[in-house]
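INPUT
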Amino acid sequence: MDDSWPKIDRTTIAASVPESPMNFDEKPPFNRTINVYPLTNYTFGTKDAQAEKDKSVPERFKRMKDEYEVVGMRRSVEAVLIVHEHSLPHILLLQIGTTFYKLPGGELEIGEDEISGVTRLLNDTLGRTDGESNEWTIEDEIGNWWRPNFDPPRYPYIPAHVTKPKEHTKLLLVQLPAKSTFCVPKNFKLVAAPLFELYDNAAAYGPLISSLPTTLSRFNFIFNDSN
Amino acid sequence: MTELDEAVLLGEATDQHDGPIDENELLDEKVLKEEDPDDLYEEAIAPTSHQEEPAKLVDSPVAVTAPVVATKPAAAPEGRKYCCYIGNLLWYTTDADLLKAIASTGLSRSQFADMKFFENRTNGQSKGYALLVLNSDAAVKQIMETLPSKPIHGQSPTVLAYNKTNQAKLEEVQAKNQTRPDVKKKTFEDGCVNMGTIRIGTGSQGRSGSTSTSGRSGPPPLMMQQVRPTPLMSQQMTQQVPQMSNQIPQMRLQINGQPVPMVNQRAQIPQQGLMGTAPMGGITQQMQPQQPMMMPQQTQIRPAMMQPTMGVQPMMNMAAPPPMANQFANSSRPPQIAPMGVGVQPLMQMNTAMRPPVNGLPPVHVNPQMQMFPGIQGPSLSEAEFEDVMNRNQTVSSSAIARAITDASVGDVKGASETLLTAIALIKNSRIGHDERCRQLIYGLEHTLKGLESKGYSSRSSKSHRDRSRSRERDRKRRRRSRTRSRSYSRSPSPRRRRY
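OUTPUT
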């Protein structure tokens, strides 16, 4: 048995999004404009239920821990899809059970990049089943959240005493086409939650989703008519 | 996404609060949180037949210990774990810092099993102490002897034996240093959802029919039904069905017509207790004896801090006094909702250890463990006891109110009253029942009781027409003023649902 301690040089993390490639040069536009379309432009069908990977919360964290010991930190992505009603942005959320909401998304495969990962996951979760393909335009990275331990809390930063977070979740803003069809697994309900419902409502939606109105305020959403 | 929501999702709904109430149960609600020292202790000490993952040492199914070393910890063939607490860490002392210090003591790597930092759940901040899990008793002894001489960021780690008393001490110390309350208990009843949320009708039920039948068959598109699935609620629902089916798709729901903030209160009260947002009256009284002993140098500025705070928040007395009220004051931090514009407070509130002492005060995060412990162990023991009982009373109070409101909201006013009366009796009969803060607790309970009764909580009309979602913020404020007067809402938007 190896009885030596791992060599520890630096005891702190080197960047707030440690595994992200550094990008000092590209100057992003000062503000960004995103087209959104009325909810009525989209049609929704159903498809077979998609079971959760884990049967229970403890199992879920057990698997996370087991995988962590083999492949390291889990990487996941969540997609923010926006429609509008009465010129108010609404975010598409999957409702599971009665009180649980989540953004569409999931775990990335090892080595999978975020964009192909989120595209794959969106196709799995909301993609149509009639052979046609959906168009998902990944616009922007709008946030990063970390899970410091194998338990529920996630924060939009890595707490100072943590050097080895257990999960990193990237939030990606997805621009929807003007019209489209989605197929929702039968065990989910899809809801369009207006920003005012989410705002300051961590009690119902959790800190991540309830922070989206704030996160999204930097975008200029163009409210297109149904035509 | 809160953990309770996840629990619900995965079919692990929270308990229903049935059966008779007793003090233990009420207290359990507090204890059954992230880390229960009792279970932790027993689990870790008890020999186990098979090799156990360190994760199992922590009682909560989800609060799993985090191995800091990615490689599997060395096996402990006997499956027996030995723990100790490492305290006096700074909030920015990292797991790697600690690991490095441990490695530097010469401890054999194979003796290290796991470690877990205690964290403030609200913001993830370290509480400045960690649980170290080792594979032998000798290793614990070795750490106890050697680690304190390996300073981390200039502070000597303290190694404390693994028992409840020590954890309580560490917890007490950290409470003084946290900039944010540690709201561990997430009450999902607090969750108030679906104001205006548009449900896109594709789910399993969504398909079945036209809008007119869907209201009848099972979960109508109404979201509020899911929020509080109580028997009475569904009763109310069925009554609404005819109305609903006529008005689809532009439905106005009555639940928003007459919001009753009590529901939200129930969820928030327990947090309130932990949050330390509160009554100033009790604080000043309690503070006087403690202050000189714990941190003499703070006494002089306290008036400056307290006075403005008190002036602004007289209405908060309704809430239970926070367990940490003293600690907030001691650590020179204002209560959570203290106004920002007051003198030195903003500075002291800053969460940075880099800040030089202000007015001779240590910065918030200089770990005062060393200076605190003598005080705790010495003549202040009775103070600690007092605090202990006070905390219990506060827990009893807030849990009872929460539970009473739960009961009342499903029509069990009698049960709710009994709960409150039991809590009043418990607090009155506690050793410090005469104390002003306890009297305030009792007053709050009695007030709630009156409120319940006068409100005719059992009558259906007030029970079901309740806005849960838009009233979060306002309820919180209003509750401090009065539990019973908050009836009318000038603004109670009606949700509009539409099926597609």
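end of record. The radius of gyration of chain A is 19 Å.
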